[in-house]
UniProtKB/TrEMBL annotation:
Family recorded in the similarity comment: Belongs to the ABC transporter superfamily.
Keywords noted in UniProt: ATP-binding, Nucleotide-binding, Transport
Ranges for domain ABC transporter: 8-253
Annotated GO MF terms: ATP binding
Name by which UniProt lists this protein: ATP-binding cassette domain-containing protein
Protein's organism: Lysinibacillus agricola
Entries under Pfam families matching the protein: ABC_tran (PF00005), oligo_HPY (PF08352)
């Protein structure tokens, strides 16, 4: 593999919500790297912690322990004003539900400009307007839509407005949190293709959060599978799909595709029985089973996984 530049590094991330009796460990010792130019997928069922990781990188959720580095520099804790401004511009997020994530009372022009205004990232009024027009055109919308309100648009158009809002900042890294799962099935491919094209044109790096495995397989280069706040497996996406090792990944992959994603999630929960793990007896570590293919396992499980891997390989 050629030399890859690490853009984002998540190191032993722990995110804890609440205190005392209400303490809840949402993210537990999660580490991974995202290379510049790639699409890194995070998959797992609802509540596994995907969004929490995205929000920690966005600095919306506080980091309890560990570190997040961007270009090798700290994102969390005390940072300089200049660095704060730079990452506010360079790291953008696209949200799941375009019905909830756009300010209903604001015109599209303001919705798209807000980040520019906050970071004073335009020369003058004409420049601001030009940036908004370009952003709309880049997501396949008419520039004159800028004078309209969100309710005048369909779900797919609204999501494209959400994408324009990120794009106008000229970001380097975009966290897309289930960007198509709230959309009508008939337009999902359209929006997915738009995201893929924008990546090419703008040299973007994506963190793509999803529970839909066919989407992940289509758009990501590498994928991490997250279960109850821990990454259980991480590999190049094709490797993960053709040679899954961890029982949870296997359960996830064998779940019968369901048109209703919520049903699919429930099925995974039924199929995967975590009590088969001996995590409580012996704590697992993150082990590289083959190049770039990591699995969370303790010694006993490791032996089992090794055997199953050999069987797959020799098939
Ligand atoms: N602010 C918060 N306070 C308390 N608990 C929280 C908070 N935010 C998230 N959680 C909990 O942390 C866990 C992980 O949530 P998260 O939203 O990251 O999951 P997810 O994998 O993104 O799921 P989904 O697909 O439903 O968005 C959940 O159990 C959730 O209830």
């Amino acid at each position: 593999m050629s030399h890859k530049e690490v853009l984002v590094e998540v190191k032993n991330l722990k995110v804890v919500f609440g205190k005392g009796k209400n303490k809840f460990i949402a993210i537990d010792d999660v580490s991974f790297e995202i290379f510049k130019g790639e699409t890194f997928g995070l998959v797992g069922e609802s509540g596994s912690g995907k969004t929490t990781i995205g929000r920690a990188i966005m600095r919306i959720n506080e980091v309890t322990e560990g570190q997040i580095l961007y270009h090798g520099k700290k994102l969390n804790g005390k940072i300089s004003k200049e660095w704060d401004r730079e990452i506010t511009q360079k790291i953008q997020m696209i949200f799941q539900d375009p019905m909830a994530s756009l300010n209903e009372r604001a015109k599209v022009d303001y919705i798209i400009s807000e980040g520019l205004i906050n970071t004073k990232n335009f020369k003058n009024e004409a420049d601001r307007q030009q940036k908004v027009r370009n952003a709309l055109l880049n997501v396949g919308l008419l520039p004159e839509f800028s004078s309209r309100f969100p309710h005048e648009f369909s779900g797919g158009q609204r999501q494209r407005i959400g994408i324009a809002r990120a794009l106008v900042m000229e970001p380097e890294f975009i966290i897309a949190d289930e960007p198509i799962s709230a959309l009508d099935v008939s337009i999902r491919a359209q929006v997915l293709n738009l995201l893929a094209n924008l990546q090419q044109q703008n040299d973007l790096t994506y963190l793509f959060i999803a529970h839909d495995l066919s989407v992940v397989r289509f758009i990501t280069d590498r994928t991490a599978v997250i279960y109850k706040g821990k990454i259980v497996e991480l590999a190049e996406t094709e490797k993960l799909f053709t040679n899954p090792i961890h029982p949870y990944t296997r359960a996830l992959l064998s779940a019968v595709p369901e048109p209703n994603p919520y049903k699919e999630r429930d099925k995974v929960v039924e199929i995967y029985d975590p009590s088969q793990h001996s995590y409580d007896i012996q704590p697992p570590s993150f082990i590289e089973m083959e190049e770039g293919h990591f699995v969370l396992a303790n010694e006993e499980e490791l032996e089992r996984y090794r055997t199953s891997l050999k069987m797959e390989v020799s098939k």
